[in-house]
Each structure stands twice: as C-alpha cells, then as structure tokens.
C-alpha cells in the first residue's frame, strides 16, 4: 500500500473519489453527506491508502475542532482490502500526523452498531466519552484519545 497525507485545499479536490469508495464500503451512502460538509470544515486532513494501479483502497478524513482537538470524521476501507490491518494503519498515520501538527486529542463518533470500529478504537487507546441517539434514532458512541506529542 502507498499512503499519502493531504491537507487543506488538496482535500477539497477529492470528493468524487471518496464518495465512490464510501458507496463501495457502506452500500447506501448519500454523497451530499460528504460533499456538502467538506466545503464547510476547517483545516481538513486526508490520509489515503492506494493499492495496485493507484486505486483508492481506504481513507481517513478529519478536521480541526478547536485549537488542540482533531475530529476524525469519516473513514472507509474497500471491501476487497478488509481484514488486512488497513483501518488500523490509516488511523496510526492520521494520529501521527495530528500529533505532529500540535493536536493533543482526537475525537470520533461511530454508530453504536459498528462494533468493529468501536473495538478498533478501544484497542488504539480511545475511551468512550459519550452516547446519544441521533435525529434518525440511531445510537452514536463518542470516543476520545489523548495524543502524545511528537
């Protein structure tokens, strides 16, 4: 896998490719969830993983949410690239970048039904800091992790 980290305007140039992967990874996915929000976020950061022929295999996308808090917003791994440690590798690169950029904490929210992501987060040093039911009646778990300065 080849990994790349993009920031700022470079991230805004990638929505079509990210939407394509989200549709493959999640099945039902509203492209507006990504494209509309991407235009409003501050200081975006995108970690990508590419497999053979430069095909996008996975990504982690996040943004600034306060002076020392990085919000890890959206990530996906193509079904053909699952069970190979790619989500963990993307997370590690994202958190390393965030620590080098001066962030002290990373936060993420995950649907309660996504046990695999919640467990990966816990194994990666996150703690559960909240639970809520969103406006669609879906349970959402909030998790935070303290980053070590680099």
Characterise the protein shown here.
The chain has helices spanning 9-12, 15-26, 31-38, 86-100, 115-123; strands spanning 2-7, 45-50, 56-64, 69-77, 105-111, 127-133, 139-146. With 150 residues, the protein is an alpha+beta fold. The protein has a single domain, classed as Gcn5-related N-acetyltransferase (GNAT) (Aminopeptidase). A hairpin with a 4-residue loop joins strand 3 (56-64) and strand 4. Helix 2 (15-26) packs antiparallel against helix 3 (31-38). It is globular and about 40 Å long.
* Arithmetic mean of pLDDT: 94
* Name given to the CATH homologous superfamily: Gcn5-related N-acetyltransferase (GNAT)
CATH class: Alpha Beta
The helix/strand class is alpha+beta
Largest sheet: 7 strands, mixed
Helix content: 25-40%
Question: Can you lay out the helices and strands and say which pair or pack?
Answer:
Blueprint (H helix, E strand, L loop, with lengths): L1 E6 L1 H4 L2 H12 L4 H8 L6 E6 L5 E9 L4 E9 L8 H15 L4 E7 L3 H9 L3 E7 L5 E8 L4
Parallel strand pairs: 4-5
Antiparallel strand pairs: 1-2, 2-3, 3-4, 5-7, 6-7
Helix pairs in contact: 2-3
List keywords for this structure.
single chain; alpha+beta; 7-stranded mixed β-sheet; 7 strands; Aminopeptidase; globular; about 150 residues
Quick gist of this model?
The chain has 150 residues and is an alpha+beta fold.
